[in-house]
Design brief:
The chain has a two-stranded parallel sheet with strand order 1-2. The chain is built from 5 helices and 2 strands. It starts with a helix and ends with a helix. 77% of the residues lie in helices and 5% in strands.
Length: 192
């Protein structure tokens, strides 16, 4: 008797999950390609370009110091022949210390950038998650799954369940609207 109830339960579950059109057992489901969202979401693109600009700005000063160090190393090799081994050891230690300082400065610069833009990136991810949640509620979805490189909760789905482009369009429209409203007060303040 228990075996027949178990088989009947399994068969019922299989048949109820086998319905077409995303309405399995009355549930409305869809999925979002999270790697596409992170690649095409305008806020992420803006953060990436801001990060590159800041890295270039910070890197220019460091690059000047590195170039000077390289020139000093080249002249050191010539001077060492003339000034002797004792001078060469002392100067070599100084150059090595400067190299370590330059490497520490570069590492500190990278940590600063990661800290600053990591927080901004986390904020953008939080906004995106909240938007998807609100989108799901507004459009009557019971489940919205994520697929992509970092999120692999969907192993297979029909393309008709993919709402990535819909969410991406609305996210970008919302971001562009937010960016315009944030930029407008700054321009007004500058003219005052």
């Amino acid at each position: 008797m228990k075996k027949s109830l178990l088989i009947f339960g399994c068969a019922l579950a299989l048949f109820s999950c086998n319905k077409e059109g995303g309405d399995a057992s009355g549930f409305k489901t869809a999925y979002v390609d999270t790697s596409k969202l992170s690649k095409d979401y305008e806020e992420f693109k803006d953060l990436e370009s801001q990060s590159k600009v800041k890295m270039e700005e910070m890197g220019r000063e460091l690059e000047g110091k590195v170039q000077q160090w390289k020139l000093d190393v080249a002249s050191f090799q010539e001077e060492a022949k003339v000034k002797g081994q004792q001078w060469a050891q002392l100067k070599g230690q100084q150059l090595q210390k400067r190299e370590q300082e330059l490497m520490a400065e570069q590492e500190a610069m990278m940590k600063q950038l990661q800290g600053e833009f990591g927080v901004k990136n986390d904020s953008a991810v939080s906004k995106m998650k909240k938007f998807i949640k609100d989108y799901g509620k507004k459009n009557g979805y019971d489940y919205i799954y994520g697929s992509g490189e970092s999120t692999n909760s969907v192993l297979y789905a029909k393309d008709s369940y993919d709402i990535t482009n819909d969410i991406l369009k609305e996210l970008n429209d919302k971001y562009k609207g937010t960016a315009k409203t944030e930029a407008t007060p700054k321009k007004e303040e500058e003219t005052k």
